Predict the 3D structure of the following.
Amino acid sequence: MGGPEDASAEFVALIERARAYDRDAFGELYRRSLGSVFRYCRSRVDSTAEAEELTQDVFMAALAGIQSVRADREAAWLAWLFQVARHKHADALRRRYRRPQAPLEAAGDAPDGAPQPLAEVVAQDERAEVRRALEQLTDEQREVIVCKYVLGYDNERTAAVVGKNSNAVNQLHHRAVARLRRLLAAREVVR
Protein backbone atom coordinates (compact mmCIF):
# COMPACT_ATOMS: atom_id res chain seq x y z
CA MET A 1 0.00 0.00 0.00
CA GLY A 2 2.25 2.76 -1.27
CA GLY A 3 5.48 1.26 0.09
CA PRO A 4 9.02 1.43 -1.29
CA GLU A 5 8.37 -1.52 -3.61
CA ASP A 6 5.43 0.33 -5.19
CA ALA A 7 7.51 3.48 -5.64
CA SER A 8 10.35 1.47 -7.19
CA ALA A 9 7.97 -0.36 -9.54
CA GLU A 10 6.38 2.95 -10.53
CA PHE A 11 9.79 4.46 -11.21
CA VAL A 12 10.89 1.47 -13.30
CA ALA A 13 7.68 1.80 -15.32
CA LEU A 14 8.38 5.51 -15.81
CA ILE A 15 11.91 4.75 -17.05
CA GLU A 16 10.56 2.06 -19.39
CA ARG A 17 8.03 4.51 -20.84
CA ALA A 18 10.78 7.12 -21.27
CA ARG A 19 12.94 4.53 -23.08
CA ALA A 20 10.04 4.13 -25.50
CA TYR A 21 10.31 7.91 -26.08
CA ASP A 22 7.10 8.70 -24.21
CA ARG A 23 7.24 12.50 -23.90
CA ASP A 24 5.09 12.59 -20.77
CA ALA A 25 7.30 10.03 -19.02
CA PHE A 26 10.51 11.89 -19.85
CA GLY A 27 8.79 15.12 -18.82
CA GLU A 28 7.98 13.60 -15.44
CA LEU A 29 11.59 12.42 -15.00
CA TYR A 30 12.73 15.93 -15.95
CA ARG A 31 10.30 17.54 -13.49
CA ARG A 32 11.42 15.26 -10.65
CA SER A 33 15.13 15.80 -11.19
CA LEU A 34 15.53 19.32 -12.61
CA GLY A 35 16.12 21.04 -9.27
CA SER A 36 18.72 18.54 -8.12
CA VAL A 37 20.55 18.56 -11.45
CA PHE A 38 20.57 22.36 -11.60
CA ARG A 39 21.92 22.68 -8.04
CA TYR A 40 24.55 20.03 -8.82
CA CYS A 41 25.59 21.92 -11.96
CA ARG A 42 25.56 25.26 -10.14
CA SER A 43 28.00 23.86 -7.59
CA ARG A 44 30.45 23.15 -10.40
CA VAL A 45 30.39 26.41 -12.39
CA ASP A 46 30.89 30.12 -11.76
CA SER A 47 27.55 31.56 -12.82
CA THR A 48 23.86 30.80 -12.94
CA ALA A 49 23.89 31.19 -16.72
CA GLU A 50 26.60 28.53 -17.03
CA ALA A 51 24.63 26.24 -14.71
CA GLU A 52 21.49 26.70 -16.80
CA GLU A 53 23.38 25.88 -19.98
CA LEU A 54 25.04 22.86 -18.40
CA THR A 55 21.69 21.64 -17.05
CA GLN A 56 20.20 21.94 -20.52
CA ASP A 57 23.11 19.96 -21.97
CA VAL A 58 22.62 17.26 -19.33
CA PHE A 59 18.96 16.76 -20.15
CA MET A 60 19.58 16.83 -23.90
CA ALA A 61 22.20 14.11 -23.41
CA ALA A 62 19.82 12.23 -21.10
CA LEU A 63 17.14 12.23 -23.77
CA ALA A 64 19.63 11.07 -26.39
CA GLY A 65 21.00 8.36 -24.08
CA ILE A 66 17.78 7.26 -22.39
CA GLN A 67 18.18 3.78 -23.91
CA SER A 68 21.30 3.15 -21.83
CA VAL A 69 19.70 4.03 -18.47
CA ARG A 70 19.38 1.06 -16.14
CA ALA A 71 17.95 2.91 -13.15
CA ASP A 72 15.51 1.04 -10.92
CA ARG A 73 15.03 3.87 -8.44
CA GLU A 74 15.25 7.63 -8.41
CA ALA A 75 18.67 7.72 -6.71
CA ALA A 76 20.17 5.63 -9.52
CA TRP A 77 18.58 7.97 -12.10
CA LEU A 78 20.11 10.99 -10.33
CA ALA A 79 23.49 9.27 -10.09
CA TRP A 80 23.39 8.70 -13.86
CA LEU A 81 22.39 12.33 -14.49
CA PHE A 82 25.21 13.57 -12.23
CA GLN A 83 27.66 11.42 -14.17
CA VAL A 84 26.37 12.98 -17.40
CA ALA A 85 26.79 16.42 -15.77
CA ARG A 86 30.40 15.66 -14.85
CA HIS A 87 31.14 14.66 -18.45
CA LYS A 88 29.34 17.70 -19.90
CA HIS A 89 31.20 19.99 -17.48
CA ALA A 90 34.53 18.45 -18.53
CA ASP A 91 33.56 18.96 -22.18
CA ALA A 92 32.73 22.62 -21.49
CA LEU A 93 36.08 23.15 -19.74
CA ARG A 94 37.94 21.61 -22.68
CA ARG A 95 36.09 23.89 -25.12
CA ARG A 96 36.82 26.93 -22.95
CA TYR A 97 40.54 26.22 -22.80
CA ARG A 98 40.78 25.55 -26.54
CA ARG A 99 38.96 28.75 -27.46
CA PRO A 100 41.31 31.66 -28.21
CA GLN A 101 41.15 34.45 -25.66
CA ALA A 102 40.44 38.00 -26.79
CA PRO A 103 42.74 40.75 -25.54
CA LEU A 104 41.49 42.70 -22.53
CA GLU A 105 41.15 45.87 -24.60
CA ALA A 106 38.48 44.15 -26.71
CA ALA A 107 36.22 43.91 -23.68
CA GLY A 108 35.61 47.65 -23.58
CA ASP A 109 34.47 49.60 -20.56
CA ALA A 110 32.29 48.29 -17.76
CA PRO A 111 28.59 48.69 -18.64
CA ASP A 112 27.85 51.55 -16.28
CA GLY A 113 31.35 52.36 -15.07
CA ALA A 114 30.35 51.72 -11.45
CA PRO A 115 32.32 49.16 -9.47
CA GLN A 116 30.49 46.17 -8.02
CA PRO A 117 29.39 46.52 -4.41
CA LEU A 118 32.07 45.31 -2.04
CA ALA A 119 29.83 42.64 -0.50
CA GLU A 120 29.22 41.04 -3.91
CA VAL A 121 32.93 41.04 -4.73
CA VAL A 122 33.76 39.44 -1.38
CA ALA A 123 31.02 36.82 -1.85
CA GLN A 124 32.32 35.97 -5.33
CA ASP A 125 35.86 35.62 -3.97
CA GLU A 126 34.67 33.35 -1.16
CA ARG A 127 32.68 31.15 -3.56
CA ALA A 128 35.71 30.89 -5.83
CA GLU A 129 37.93 29.88 -2.90
CA VAL A 130 35.46 27.22 -1.77
CA ARG A 131 35.18 25.93 -5.35
CA ARG A 132 39.00 25.72 -5.61
CA ALA A 133 39.13 23.89 -2.28
CA LEU A 134 36.40 21.47 -3.41
CA GLU A 135 38.46 20.66 -6.50
CA GLN A 136 41.25 19.44 -4.20
CA LEU A 137 39.00 16.83 -2.57
CA THR A 138 38.73 13.31 -3.93
CA ASP A 139 35.88 12.74 -6.37
CA GLU A 140 33.97 10.75 -3.75
CA GLN A 141 34.44 13.43 -1.08
CA ARG A 142 33.31 16.15 -3.48
CA GLU A 143 30.21 14.16 -4.48
CA VAL A 144 29.26 13.67 -0.83
CA ILE A 145 29.71 17.37 -0.07
CA VAL A 146 27.60 18.38 -3.08
CA CYS A 147 24.88 15.86 -2.20
CA LYS A 148 24.72 16.89 1.44
CA TYR A 149 25.18 20.67 1.25
CA VAL A 150 24.06 21.66 -2.23
CA LEU A 151 21.29 19.12 -2.75
CA GLY A 152 20.34 18.79 0.92
CA TYR A 153 20.35 14.98 0.94
CA ASP A 154 20.61 12.92 4.11
CA ASN A 155 23.20 10.12 4.46
CA GLU A 156 20.87 7.42 3.09
CA ARG A 157 19.95 9.30 -0.07
CA THR A 158 23.56 10.41 -0.55
CA ALA A 159 24.65 6.78 -0.17
CA ALA A 160 22.20 5.70 -2.85
CA VAL A 161 23.44 8.39 -5.25
CA VAL A 162 27.17 7.79 -4.74
CA GLY A 163 26.88 4.00 -4.50
CA LYS A 164 28.17 3.63 -0.95
CA ASN A 165 26.59 2.64 2.35
CA SER A 166 25.57 5.24 4.96
CA ASN A 167 28.61 4.57 7.16
CA ALA A 168 30.99 5.13 4.24
CA VAL A 169 29.16 8.36 3.38
CA ASN A 170 29.47 9.51 6.99
CA GLN A 171 33.23 8.86 6.96
CA LEU A 172 33.69 10.54 3.57
CA HIS A 173 31.68 13.52 4.83
CA HIS A 174 33.77 13.97 7.98
CA ARG A 175 37.06 13.60 6.09
CA ALA A 176 35.92 16.03 3.40
CA VAL A 177 34.82 18.67 5.89
CA ALA A 178 38.09 18.35 7.82
CA ARG A 179 40.10 18.67 4.61
CA LEU A 180 38.07 21.67 3.46
CA ARG A 181 38.69 23.36 6.82
CA ARG A 182 42.44 22.77 6.48
CA LEU A 183 42.53 23.99 2.88
CA LEU A 184 40.51 27.12 3.57
CA ALA A 185 42.49 27.88 6.75
CA ALA A 186 45.74 27.58 4.78
CA ARG A 187 44.39 30.08 2.24
CA GLU A 188 43.57 32.51 5.07
CA VAL A 189 47.15 32.28 6.35
CA VAL A 190 48.50 33.02 2.86
CA ARG A 191 46.45 36.22 2.60
